[in-house]
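Lecture 7, part 2: worked example. A protein chain together with zinc ion.
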Amino acid sequence: MGINHFTEKIPGLYYLNEGGSDIIWLLVGAEKALLVDTGFGRLDLKAEAAKVTDRELILVNTHMHPDHAGGNGQFEIACCAAADLPLMAGMKKRMPEFTEAQHTLTVEEGDTFDLGGATVEVIAVPGHTPGSIGLLWREARILLIGDACNQQVWMHLEHSLPLTVFAGSMQKLVDRAGDYDCMYTSHGESGMRYTAETPRALRRLALAVAAGQKHGEPATTHLGHKAMLIMEDGVGFYYDPEKE
Ligand SMILES: [Zn+2]
Ligand SMILES: [Zn+2]
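Predicted complex, written out as structure tokens:
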């Protein structure tokens, strides 16, 4: 069951659970609001956002997967990392119903959104997709991480990057641990909550698998993808051994 309206998580941070496990985030500053992802696009997101804020909306995508950018067509402008633009082209081909924003602007590492009393920094975390980004709300010490880091990262996808690159992104999240108290992902009831321990464990595991020191087991994702899965102490990832 989805909760098809924005619910306050902490002051200024709202989540909307579209369809049961896809989280759309909304950060409300004194002057502007940042909408993070658009789900599959089943809901009128402007109307939903208007129920909690009258601030001007800025849309940013953590990455260009259909469960994160499906509603981009409702907006004039979307922002995403340049490295994920080819994924948008792929979505348009595979899903004729997918429409993009009229204009898609690119963001990169270190860019910030000033929402008025809330500064949100872009952190590039390539791996799950080439253009995956995290969004660090500096004042609240919260990192919205999309699908780039969680207890079971999908690294087996056609466009997922090598595990060594993923390990580098996890290292970056460990290096930035002093800047956030927790990260929230885009899936789960109201976004799963993690600390820097998760990227620390993922980095170790990714390097060990990339070096051939550890091996996963054949597994199938809930979407029916066949891949290898490695898990240790409840944290791990799917991967494609052909790529490594
Ligand atoms: Zn996702
Ligand atoms: Zn994804």
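The chain has one domain: 3-152+162-196. Residues 3-152+162-196 form a domain with the Metallo-beta-lactamase; Chain A fold (CATH 3.60.15.10). Keep this in mind for problem set question 3.
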